[in-house]
Design brief:
Structural class: mainly alpha
Number of strands: 3
Low-confidence stretches: none
Largest sheet: 3 strands, mixed
Distance between the termini: 21 Å
Strand content: 5-15%
Strand order of the largest sheet: 1-3-2
Length: 182
């Protein structure tokens, strides 16, 4: 699967909306509107995504559980481009969950098995890989790209099943997933 993205242009009519979402006293409604704007303006795919909502109680930037995505306050601590990268990353996870489900894996818990830990590592590596591939369209800064590369490296290290790792290295993510499911 391919994950499209295009450069997000914030015209004069959207500048106050974006500014309001990144302020210290930003309300949930403003942040939700910016998330929706990013998806629309960035041309992001919401394939297999059931919901995409701001969650003021989430203690991490983003989380996707079986296609239900929540974006937390810490996603708004940098800039619009970083937020776009987080939203994009989480959207990549939705088809991954759908693929697992269609292949008999209804839930993934890294504490339950080594295989499931590896599945999460593969999924994170893929999502970071796509974010890096779309870094130009997402207008990510050099520092932001470096941070994503660092995170991708850790995910790749955690993917310690040789065949799946080799396939993932060659961007054959579905085939790597099949190795882990088998």
């Amino acid at each position: 699967m391919s994950y499209p993205a295009r450069r997000i242009i914030v015209d004069n009519s959207r500048q106050s909306l974006v500014a309001a979402a990144f302020g210290k006293s930003a309300d949930a409604g403003a942040r939700q509107k910016v998330i929706e704007f990013i998806v629309s303006a960035g041309g992001f795919s919401k394939d297999q995504t059931k919901s995409l909502n701001y969650s003021e109680n989430l203690n991490q930037p983003g989380k996707n559980v079986a296609g239900d995505i929540r974006i937390g306050p810490s996603a708004f601590e940098d800039d619009l481009n970083w937020l776009a990268g987080i939203v994009f990353h989480e959207l990549v996870h939705s088809p991954q969950y759908a693929y697992y489900f269609s292949n008999g894996v209804s839930q993934i818990d890294p504490d339950r098995s080594e295989t499931e830990r590896r599945m999460i590592a593969l999924d994170e590596f893929e999502a970071y890989s796509w974010t890096l591939l779309r870094a130009n369209e997402l207008s990510l800064s050099r520092d932001q790209v470096s941070e994503i590369r660092r995170r991708a490296s850790f995910a790749f290290i955690d993917l310690d099943e040789d065949k799946a790792r080799s396939l993932a290295h060659n961007r054959k993510f579905t085939e790597a997933r099949d190795v882990l499911i088998a």
